[in-house]
Amino acid sequence: MTTVSTPVSQPLLDRLRAALGADSVLVDPDVTDGYRRDMMPLAPDGAPQAVVFPRNTEEVQEVVRTCAAHGVPIVPRGAGSGLSGAANATEGCVVLVTTRMNAILEIDADNRLAVVEPGVVNLDLRGAVEKHGLFYPPDPSSYDWCTIGGNLSTNAGGLCCVKYGVTSDSVLGLHVVLADGELLKTGRRTVKGVAGYDLTKLFVGSEGTLGVITQATLALRPLPQAPATTVAAFGTTADAGTAVTRIVREGIVPSLMEIMDAAAVEAVETYLKTELGAGRGAAALLICQSDSGGEAARRELAAIEQVCLDSGADLAYTTDDPAEGRLLLAARRAVLPALELYGAWLTDDVCVPRTRIAELIAGCARIGDEVGLRIVVCGHAGDGNMHPTIVYDRDSTDELARARRAFDDVLGLGLALGGTITGEHAVGKVKREWLVRELGPVGLRTHRAIKTALDPTNLFNPGSMFALE
Amino acid sequence: MTTVSTPVSQPLLDRLRAALGADSVLVDPDVTDGYRRDMMPLAPDGAPQAVVFPRNTEEVQEVVRTCAAHGVPIVPRGAGSGLSGAANATEGCVVLVTTRMNAILEIDADNRLAVVEPGVVNLDLRGAVEKHGLFYPPDPSSYDWCTIGGNLSTNAGGLCCVKYGVTSDSVLGLHVVLADGELLKTGRRTVKGVAGYDLTKLFVGSEGTLGVITQATLALRPLPQAPATTVAAFGTTADAGTAVTRIVREGIVPSLMEIMDAAAVEAVETYLKTELGAGRGAAALLICQSDSGGEAARRELAAIEQVCLDSGADLAYTTDDPAEGRLLLAARRAVLPALELYGAWLTDDVCVPRTRIAELIAGCARIGDEVGLRIVVCGHAGDGNMHPTIVYDRDSTDELARARRAFDDVLGLGLALGGTITGEHAVGKVKREWLVRELGPVGLRTHRAIKTALDPTNLFNPGSMFALE
Questions:
Q1: How confident is the model at residue B5 (pLDDT cuts 50, 70, 90)?
Q2: Do A385 and B206 touch (CB under 8 A)?
């Protein structure tokens, strides 16, 4: 937190209040400080001069025009559940919070689509479409409080991706307020369409740097069957990695395939006061589900169970009890809160080719030893997207520094294994330097050219993803 | 064809010959005329001053630098199977043909990906990966001769899309030579990744207007089971449309769902000298497949058969004989060649919400009556992507004019039904004015801003998709 007082432009605030109403423009630092940061402890932040809560597209346009006229940057923000600092405020900016734009405008069951505002909470959308027998797949860990707008901005993933893809695979079209305040409508309501550049997918994952999304048309899928679940415990992470490779190689597509290392299992068992059935000495637990239903699910999971045993699993069992499946998933989702038993956590997000998962886990153990901190690994084994999570003492600047070193070493390891520095959390304000390493000079130049073309004054989320110079 | 002689720049040709070798630079108009056009009769074309055949990325870079230095535009081209004029030459341009870059560089079965050059023929890739038990889904009608580069540039679809999506859903990363000759590498080899803007999907479907794709990393799927097939014949197209809507609504996802109207069935039966079993008086034939295998396929197709009968089908039957399924598909794919029995054809490519298919077919019949030409409708009912095809006498300028009118009226109808002017064939040089109508002024301006940012001198495929001014 800075001790310098944040510059405030009274004419800007006056115009924002005139457009949105005084109750939609917050300036009290005790309140606005709550909007400085998302959930990533390492990213820089600043004090916003105002936090605004527009209720509709027209109000967003007015905020954009006002901020553009005053040369004040805008940081778009949903629920603040992000893990990259993409929604962190910059000093003196206006934070534009979309949570009041939370209407589900339409569910067209016959064409399997929904039209929503960005502030809709992921879980609320899932529940609403489920009533129509439909399914919105993207399910980031924070799905019970994150917003669709944040999911769109980071191109969020989740546990579903191995079978159903990431957020951009479920987006048909967007409304976006551009830097000049004009409203751009991208995409369409049809399943297919190639009229023009794919602007929809350019804006998805652009981390609020190109415009403010005010509406999205989302593709829905048929609601799958209640899943059956297979759990397998391995004595070595290498064996677990072999099992993942073989499952992929055999052409089995589970609806979920999660991995937890021994430390993750231990933390969750302590936190939830339950046993996950991995047994003593297990180095890794693999949780797989199939939502194909009936005989197809039984066949898929029997094949997975056999592959696990063939790859050296100490035990493997399958259940078609949905309650048991839910408990196992709840355990997997409890890894991060469970780590708070030990201290603060810092979660990474590398994605590697699926054949390299075991090497990544082994490398993380080595990095943990080197920095003297616990690194817990869990992740989406089915697509190689792993979340090595570093535990540190939040009151120790030395431990924080070592955590940062481990964080960077994990990114370097991910790149060395042919992976990427972020599978689903985004670059934000914490991995900008790493993005340059991944993209190279031509890629960075291309990014800057697009940003400058669409946002010539760097109005939107400046300094997120990459710096303009 | 123009009667003015095409301007030729000798220094340009000399430098191209020095870089590529004389046998890779064709200038004889008798030969280069064969590279003026793709398969769309209505799009404008021009005479290229040279047609070049680079063998690798470095040679593409040299062509780009040379043309940029001489201010001569480049029109990238694959096999020329396109249906939008996107690959049509402009007067005095250099046509860059990618067919000599036809190596499959890598098949990584464990990570389910392939790395290919753009000139690889779609069918060759399908065959090569099938040997590894893998599947490359995109299957445009021209799959036995179109190239992956053309598929990427138009974001091609095919019969597979209802279950497996379009080309962009199978692309992980690209190598692209930019307007300054630099090589941009987009994307990654991992399944997921959100590091930076989704440049991969920006270039896919950009119709060669932003750069030349010289390599692609493609995601593969497990090879599905041999499909079983259901055919249903309907007395009215409205009933067929109802069946499609109900199939979608019931959450059934066939691996293929094609529709042919009576005129399409008649043409194919005459052409192939066989009966498709629709019976006399059938107004529409629906062909559905499931590749889920065994019991799952039987369950899906039994449900589809029942929905068809409930929706008023006169007959419906299911076969799990792969040979019979292949024959039916071959019949569906034979619609366009079959139409040559009647004259020249001009195929449209509108995509409408799946609930509006029957209205589209009825509207096409009305348009056919109005212009006095036969309009045959077939298409990908599962995703609403329809190909109304106009038959005309190629020697009659009056019929060509009426065909053009019908072509435009179908586009207007598609937009009026909430659809798009192109589901999979691209805008090219034939639907530029329609793109403006679909995008609106803000969308068009955004397209121009991106094009100008990446290709400031309008080097690549000028006048395709949209005009810069």
A1: low
A2: no
Q: Is residue B465 assigned to a domain? A: no
In a domain, A135, yes or no: yes
Which pLDDT does position A276 carry in this prediction? 80
Please tell me whether residue B116 adopts helix, strand or coil conformation.
strand
Comparing CB atoms, the residue among A352, A354, A424 nearest residue B194 is A424
Residues B319, B351 share a domain: no
The pLDDT, as a whole number, for residue A151 is: 98
Count up the domains in chain B and report the number.
Answer: 4
Task: Judge whether residue B325 has pLDDT over 80.
Answer: yes
Do A337 and A392 fall within a single domain? Answer: yes
Please indicate, yes or no, if residue A427 is contained in any of the structural domains.
Answer: no
Contact B262, B364 (CB under 8 A): no
Same domain, yes or no, for B430 and B322? no
Pairwise CB contact (< 8 Å): A169 & B169:
yes
A129-148 tens-digit pLDDT: 999 999 999 999 999 999 99
Is the residue at A422 inside a domain? no
Q: Using a CB-CB distance cutoff of 8 angstroms, which residues of chain A are in contact with residue B351? A: 188, 190-193
Q: CB distance from A248 to chain B under 8 Å?
A: yes
Give me the amino acid identity at B358: A
The SS3 of residue B104 is strand
Cross-chain residue pair A423–B194, CB shorter than 8 Å: yes
User: How long, in residues, is chain A?
Assistant: 469
Distance from CA of A308 to the nearest CA of B (A): 16
d(CA A301, CA A307): 10
- Mean of pLDDT values over B177-183: 98
The predicted complex's ipTM stands at 0.96
* Residue B380, domain extent: 342-454
Q: Are residues B212 and B314 in the same domain?
A: no
Least confident interval from A61-70, B57-66, B319-328: B319-328
Same domain for A86 and A117, yes or no, is: no
Q: What is the pLDDT of residue A4?
A: 55
Residues of chain A predicted below pLDDT 50: 1-3
- The tokens for A238 are 């290498």
Average pLDDT, chain B: 95
Contact B192 A383 (CB under 8 A): yes
**Whether B151 and B166 share a structural domain:** yes
**Chain B residue nearest residue A349, CA to CA:** B193
Of A134, A162, A443, the CB nearest to B185: A443
CA distance A419 to chain B (A): 6
pLDDT tens, B248-306? 999 999 999 999 999 999 999 999 998 887 777 789 999 999 999 988 899 999 999 99
User: What percent of chain B shows pLDDT beyond 70?
Assistant: 99
Domain with residue A392: its CATH number is 3.40.462.10
Instruction: Tell whether B440 is within 8 A of chain A (Cβ).
Output: yes
Q: Which of B188, B423, B425 sits opposite A420 (nearest CB)?
A: B188
Q: Cβ separation of B195 and A384 shorter than 8 Å? A: no
Does the distance separating the beta carbons of B383 and A197 come in below 8 Å?
no
